[in-house]
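Re: that backbone. Tokens:
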């Protein structure tokens, strides 16, 4: 069947005969004061068969053509914004008195049998472009659309990408996040003679003991990169075994020795104070050193032992002095010696960590036997009992 004989072609011919140019559009679609004879006709025929004449100021009138041009400009702006994803409405920008000419060929419901002009107005579509008017989205919706897509497939892709990024970031942090090196003190040996002194003459509550110890230290760096150490500052505390020195079944208190009490009186208000059971006994420092990655390094530090009893409780009641006397066998009821336990804290300055405000502290403990031999202790006690002053007896034995 040829195109001129098809039912659709015949229907279009009938429509051309039934509608003339003056009745093609309803009057309600035009502003008043327009010459209807000069208005263009809009036969209900698809654009592939009929070419519509362009609208001009002479065909619409000055006012209607100005409004029509304004609507076309707004339509172009809307299309540009739609391409950018900004779907805000523009109805509030249009003149309230203007109702433009509808285009029947853009209507989704157009057909050859129902092509009367003016019948293409329906709710939910923009009256200027005959396209569906997008809903206005709030700022929260636009933000959520960027963070969590509405499409399920897009959400799964977004979640998968985020998980991969988080896992990769966690692996990198787990591998390269700086870990503190492990510092251990293996041994400590006395390297200088003992030094005894008193701050006040004949006041043995102000006695001070000094001696240097050489410590063998080992450090393991668990990081995958070298650590350049700027300095190491070590502080040691004496761990007093209170369960031993305050147990009269295991230890004889120093205050039970009448000779010592006569020579070293206990302060009057000693019972009002509680002395520390972890007194500081010395410090050590070390300069710059490099810790190789995933390896150990050994070095030595000189520890300066420096201790004085708490002046509030005096020499005979000081926990540190009683701990040394018990560990060295002076006051121990068993007569045997036991190790002295020291806890230490090493504050390190690491080049890569100090720049971000991190100065790690590493702690540990070390124990070693009493630095005094039984013969030395016996010599001091015998000299004091014979009437020699304590300082003279100590000096004669320890030099």
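Recovered sequence:
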């Amino acid at each position: 069947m040829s195109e001129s004989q098809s039912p659709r072609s015949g229907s279009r011919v009938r429509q051309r005969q039934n509608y003339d140019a003056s009745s093609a559009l309803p009057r309600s679609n035009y502003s008043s004061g327009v010459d209807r004879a000069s208005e263009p006709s809009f036969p209900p025929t698809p654009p592939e068969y009929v070419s519509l004449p362009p609208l001009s100021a002479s065909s619409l009138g000055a006012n209607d053509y100005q409004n029509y041009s304004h609507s076309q400009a707004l339509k172009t702006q809307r299309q540009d914004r739609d391409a950018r994803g900004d779907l805000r409405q523009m109805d509030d920008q249009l003149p309230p008195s203007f109702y433009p000419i509808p285009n029947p060929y853009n209507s989704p419901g157009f057909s050859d049998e129902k092509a009367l002009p003016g019948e293409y107005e329906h709710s939910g579509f923009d009256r200027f472009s005959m396209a569906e008017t997008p809903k206005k989205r709030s700022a929260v919706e636009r933000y959520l659309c960027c963070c969590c897509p509405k499409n399920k497939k897009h959400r799964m892709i977004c979640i998968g990408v985020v998980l991969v990024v988080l896992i990769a970031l966690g692996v990198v942090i787990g591998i390269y996040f700086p870990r503190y090196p492990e510092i251990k003190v293996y041994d400590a040996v006395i390297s200088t003679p003992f030094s005894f002194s008193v701050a006040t003459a004949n006041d043995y509550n102000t006695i001070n003991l000094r001696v240097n110890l050489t410590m063998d230290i080992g450090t393991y760096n668990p990081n995958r990169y070298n650590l350049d150490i700027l300095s190491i500052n070590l502080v040691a505390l004496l761990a007093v075994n209170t369960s031993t020195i305050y147990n009269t079944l295991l230890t004889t208190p120093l205050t039970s020795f009448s000779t010592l009490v006569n020579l070293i009186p206990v302060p009057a208000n000693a019972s009002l104070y509680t002395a520390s059971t972890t007194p500081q006994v010395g410090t050590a420092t070390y300069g710059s050193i490099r810790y190789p990655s995933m390896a150990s390094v050994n070095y030595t530090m000189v520890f300066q032992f420096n201790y004085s009893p708490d002046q509030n409780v005096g020499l005979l009641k000081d926990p540190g002095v009683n701990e040394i006397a018990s560990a060295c066998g002076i006051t121990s009821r068993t007569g045997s010696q036991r190790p002295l336990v020291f806890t230490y804290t090493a504050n390190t300055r690491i080049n890569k960590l100090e720049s971000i405000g991190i100065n790690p502290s590493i702690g540990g403990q070390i124990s070693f036997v009493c630095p005094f031999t039984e013969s030395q202790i016996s010599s001091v006690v015998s000299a004091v009992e014979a009437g020699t002053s304590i300082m003279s007896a100590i000096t004669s034995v320890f030099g």
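The two ends are 134 Å apart (CA to CA). The beta strands are 182-190, 195-198, 207-221, 227-238, 280-286, 289-291, 295-307, 340-350, 361-368.
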